[in-house]
């Protein structure tokens, strides 16, 4: 492919106007690239169900709280050793769905603005349900 000067095409965001190499103009109709999902966390409704399970266990005791819980909720409350997670998986913030290296790191996290915003969001916003998602898709 032959190189072209920018005088024949409009410059776009990927290169400066003085660029000599051919760079096709950006197409505004092209959708943006997909979001990276490598570090995708848990959704708000999943976190809300985890928090509700933790509250149920705290209110009803260990024996009564595990009766109607899923395996994910039981795992959150028992916290088995996992060498692949920070702090062997022992220091977990349920509202933020994050693992921490030590108790001090978790305690410091609980004082941050992000953690407090997440707590407020969990208290005020009702999580969406599957029925709402199906209605929205119609």
Span from first to last CA? 47 Å
Helix content: 40-55%
Mean pLDDT: 75
- Give the oligomer, counting copies of the same chain as homo and different chains as hetero: single chain
Q: What is the architecture of the domain at 44-62 and 71-125 at the second tier of CATH?
A: 2-Layer Sandwich
In the CATH scheme, what's the topology name of the domain at 44-62 and 71-125? Double Stranded RNA Binding Domain
Beta-strand percentage?
Answer: under 5%
Q: Main beta sheet: strand number and arrangement?
A: 2 strands, antiparallel
- Which strand order do you get reading across the main beta sheet? 1-2
**What is the total tally of β strands?**
2
Poorly predicted tracts of residues: none
Tell me, briefly, the overall form: extended
Query: What is the class of the domain at 44-62 and 71-125 in the CATH system?
Result: Alpha Beta
Total helix count? 5
Helix and strand sequence: HHEEHHH
Structural class assignment: mainly alpha
CA radius of gyration is 24 Å
Description:
A hairpin with a 4-residue loop joins strand 1 (91-93) and strand 2 (98-100). By secondary structure, the chain is mainly alpha-helical. A two-stranded antiparallel ribbon has the order 1-2. Helix 1 (44-65) packs across helix 2 (71-78). The protein has helices spanning 44-65, 71-78, 103-109, 113-124, 130-136, and strands spanning 91-93, 98-100. The chain has a domain at 44-62 and 71-125: Double Stranded RNA Binding Domain (2-Layer Sandwich). It contains five helices and two strands, in the order ααββααα.
């Amino acid at each position: 492919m032959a190189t072209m000067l920018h005088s024949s095409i409009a410059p776009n965001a990927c290169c400066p106007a003085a660029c000599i190499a051919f760079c096709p103009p950006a197409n505004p109709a092209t959708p943006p690239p997909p979001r990276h999902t490598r570090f995708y966390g848990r959704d708000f409704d999943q976190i809300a169900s985890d928090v509700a399970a933790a509250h149920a266990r705290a209110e009803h005791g260990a024996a009564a709280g595990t009766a109607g819980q899923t395996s994910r909720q039981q795992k959150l409350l028992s916290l088995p050793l996992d060498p692949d997670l920070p702090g062997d998986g022992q220091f977990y913030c349920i509202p933020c769905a994050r693992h921490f290296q030590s108790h001090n790191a978790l305690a410091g996290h609980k004082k941050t603005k992000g953690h407090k915003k997440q707590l407020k969001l969990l208290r005020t916003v009702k999580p969406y349900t599957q029925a709402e998602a199906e209605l929205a898709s119609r």
